[in-house]
Design brief:
Metal Binding Protein, Guanine Nucleotide Exchange Factor, Chain A, mainly beta, 3-stranded antiparallel beta sheet, 1 helix, 7-stranded mixed beta sheet
Length: 140
């Protein structure tokens, strides 16, 4: 496995970041918060420890939105691209939007989470486990 950084950036390119493998997870989240914040049927996330994540924001465009006392969403204030999030219940972990990555991830997707909140107009046909909320409880 390569330990070369996995690079990413926002839509306008003002914010760049890199994570050093190995990543800790790669899941597709179907929760309402992820769907609404991205305008998508689900959001694919990877994660790393904060010590293996670095972000460059030379233009001062990184913005945060605390949707609850537990979650801070980070995005580009110039182009609006969602980039990553941190949570109080997983201190030291950064969750990165996989669609913002330039380089390939070091692992395949592992599961769908918050499956009970999915939109019903999208038919998901992969064989990945479908899990309740962010837990290991398999429901599909």
């Amino acid at each position: 496995m390569s330990l070369d950084p996995i690079r990413g950036r926002c839509f306008c390119g003002e914010i760049t970041f890199a994570l050093t493998p190995p990543t800790e997870s790669f899941t597709h989240c179907h929760c309402e918060s992820c769907r609404r914040s991205h305008g998508a049927a689900f959001v694919s996330w990877t994660s790393v420890g904060g010590e293996r994540f670095r972000c460059e924001d030379l233009g001062g465009n990184l913005r945060g939105y605390e949707s609850s006392p537990d979650i801070i969403w980070q995005f580009c204030g110039r182009c609006g691209a969602p980039l990553f999030q941190t949570t109080h219940y997983s201190p030291g972990i950064v969750y990165i939007v996989a669609a913002a990555l330039i380089d390939p991830l070091d692992r395949p997707a592992e599961s769908h989470v918050s499956w009970e909140e999915r939109v019903h107009w999208l038919e998901v046909q992969d064989a990945l486990p479908k899990r309740r909320e962010k837990t290991s409880d398999r429901i599909g």
